[in-house]
TrEMBL record:
InterPro entries: PAS (IPR000014), PAS-like_dom_sf (IPR035965), PAS_fold_3 (IPR013655). Pfam families: PAS_3. Residues 27-78 form the PAS domain. This is PAS domain-containing protein. It comes from the Bacteria. Coiled coil: none annotated. The lineage of its organism: Bacteria, Pseudomonadati, Gemmatimonadota, Gemmatimonadia, Gemmatimonadales.
Length: 175
């Protein structure tokens, strides 16, 4: 399931029902420790193929890296985040989600992993998310160095949000 063996995006959207919630848990490094039946079915992987794998196994290559940087920076600091994410199933189909990612704590209050619930997003929200994400990915691709691309994409995202006068978290709730 390495990046070299991953499927090519098909451009076909893989639906799941409005009432379904995809659930996963990861360790501190983002390796999957739990996947519910809906996650298994929608992703197209078997449960045993998901457990122990980096959550990035379902990352769609057209997802802006700046959004994942924001996500990781937020949850590693102990805060929750709602984010629109385009995932890729085993066969290359994609499925958009509105993810709610939270840190998981032990009894002493130490972060021990992360928990994510994902729902079907509103199509009207995606109509605003997709053009922004396309622009972020274009900013990333303009740089041959991946780090420079991430810096450019992050700066663009921060600029868009600053112009709107809100955080990403707040922006998500305006959609």
């Amino acid at each position: 399931m390495s990046a070299a063996t991953r499927a090519t995006p098909t451009g076909i959207e893989r639906p799941f029902a409005l009432e379904e919630i995809i659930v996963s848990k990861t360790d501190l490094k983002g390796h999957i420790t739990y996947a519910n039946d809906i996650f298994v079915r929608v992703s197209g992987y078997e449960e045993h193929e998901l457990i122990g794998q980096p959550h990035a196994v379902i990352r769609h290559p057209e997802m802006p890296r700046a959004v994942f940087k924001l996500l990781w920076d937020t949850v590693e600091s102990g805060r929750e985040l709602f984010a629109y994410v385009n995932n890729m199933a085993r066969n290359g189909d994609h499925y958009w989600v509105l993810a709610h990612v939270t840190p998981s704590y032990d009894r002493e209050g130490k972060i021990v992993g992360y928990h994510s619930n994902r729902r079907v997003p509103e199509k009207s929200a995606l109509a605003k998310v997709i053009p922004l994400y396309d622009a972020l990915r274009a900013a990333e691709r303009r740089h041959s160095d991946r780090k420079d691309g991430l810096v450019a994409s992050t700066a663009m995202l921060e600029g868009v949000l600053a112009q709107a006068g809100m955080s990403y978290h707040e922006w998500v709730w305006t959609l």
